[in-house]
Design brief:
Layout (H helix, E strand, L loop, with lengths): L1 H28 L6 E7 L4 H11 L9 E6 L2 E4 L2 E3 L3 H10 L20 H7 L3 E6 L6 H5 L10 H11 L4 E5 L7 H9 L3 E3 L2 H5 L7 E5 L10 H13 L5 E7 L1 H7 L3 H22 L5 E6 L3 E2 L2 E4 L7 E4 L5 E6 L4 E2 L3 E6 L10 E2 L4 E3 L1 H10 L1
Parallel strand pairs: 1-9, 1-10, 2-18, 5-6, 5-9, 6-8, 7-8
Antiparallel strand pairs: 2-16, 3-4, 10-16, 11-15, 12-14, 13-14, 17-18
Helix pairs in contact: 2-11, 3-12, 6-7, 9-11, 10-11
The structure holds zinc ion (ZN).
């Protein structure tokens, strides 16, 4: 009898092991390795921001039909305690897969340096690039290329990006820090070709390392993010091992802090145009994945196609009126989107925050590591 029981038990264990193995296999099969990975971040871009731009332009954006899920964006407050994130902790969660304290970039809550997706890419021999409409030492780009206990240590972060990041191309909005003599010297000493005009920048696409400081900021930018992206793609595509590129449209957040609806909408349109540039480059290649997400929502925006629904109205491109409402000038805990092209990860197998509704923001990093 004992023997029969043990045979039955062995059978049950091996069958369930086979099932467990099969389900693991299925999940992994859905994440095939890609040569190139592009992550596009709309700082402060909630789902209503995307809807607002779609309503404003009167068109559905293709990426809102990609494989997708929703993401919680809380940051670390203590063991099992979470709070409203800033862009430093929000960016660090995406770039490193670790929840950290607001104000920290590229370090955990104890202040220990974390490995970023750019470090992982370099270990695999890939080219790396970070582009932003913010200054390059801003919280989101810094999360992908620096380690600091204070996001406000601008000069020190800018120096460390040149001396110890694994990023070949650093592109951001020009300002007093990035034009300072010590930054130009630091760039030269570390093999970066320093460029502060578009023509100069575009001529360096054949170089190993470059530092592009351009006027990319906001609705009056003289260099569009999509234009910088198209040259950045030329810069990284020469690496036969592929590349990882992070592109941030920082101004959805900046305009939403001031409850500037049109500014925020124009920034989402800039992000959409950048997605189009990336998709044109991809064409029919099947070796590239694209992720679009946000570090958090800003403004508590609500928007409607009808002028009746909210207190403030705006004119759509067809001349009719829609309406909107910002409930705050700060960040919110609203979930954000994660849209994926070039892979179909099984999101139900991901780690969730609190309920089964939103994946943790740290899962985006884990997905990127699996992809490359
Ligand atoms: Zn913000």
């Amino acid at each position: 009898m004992k023997k029969i029981l043990s045979v039955i038990l062995t059978f049950v264990v091996s069958v369930s092991a086979a099932f467990a193995f099969a389900s693991c296999q299925d999940v992994n099969d859905e994440i095939k390795k890609v040569k190139n990975l592009i992550i596009i971040i709309g700082d402060g871009m909630g789902l209503e921001h995307i809807k607002a731009a779609e309503i404003y332009e009167g068109e559905d954006y293709g990426f809102t039909n990609w494989h997708q899920t929703t993401v919680n964006t809380d940051s670390y407050l203590g063991e099992n305690y979470y709070t409203l994130t800033d862009s430093a902790a929000g960016g660090t969660a995406i770039a490193t897969g670790t929840l950290t304290v607001n104000g920290y970039v590229g370090v955990n809550h104890k202040g220990e340096e974390l490995s970023t997706i750019m470090d992982v890419a370099k270990q695999k021999g890939k080219a790396t690039a970070v582009l932003t409409t913010d200054t390059i030492y801003g919280a989101t780009p810094a999360s992908f290329s620096a380690h600091a206990l204070n996001r406000g240590n601008s000069g020190a972060i800018a120096v460390s990006q040149l001396t110890s990041s694994n990023v070949d191309l650093l592109c951001g909005t020009i300002d007093g820090i990035t034009t300072a003599g010590y930054i130009k010297e630091c760039a030269a000493e570390n093999g970066y070709v320093y460029c502060d005009s578009p023509d100069q920048a575009w001529s360096t696409v054949g170089e190993e390392k470059a530092y592009w400081q351009l006027d990319l900021a906001g609705v009056n930018a003289t260099v569009e993010l999509c234009e910088a992206t198209s040259y950045a793609l030329e810069f990284v595509e020469k690496d036969e091992d592929g590349f990882v590129m992070m592109i941030e449209q920082a101004h959805v957040d900046k305009y939403s802090h001031g409850n500037d609806f049109i500014g925020a909408v124009c920034s989402v349109i800039s992000l959409k145009n950048t997605v189009q540039t990336v998709m044109d480059w991809i064409g029919d290649r099947d070796d590239t994945a694209v992720l679009i997400t946000a570090d958090h929502e800003t403004g508590g925006l609500a928007v409607s196609d009808s002028e009746e629904d909210y207190p403030r109205s705006f004119e759509k491109s067809n001349g009719q009126l829609g309406s909107y409402f910002f409930s705050t000038g700060d960040h919110t805990r609203s979930y954000v989107g994660l849209f994926v092209y070039g892979a179909k990860p099984n999101f139900s197998a991901f780690e969730f925050y609190a309920s089964n509704s939103y994946i943790k923001n740290t899962e985006t990093y884990k997905l990127m590591v699996k992809l490359i």
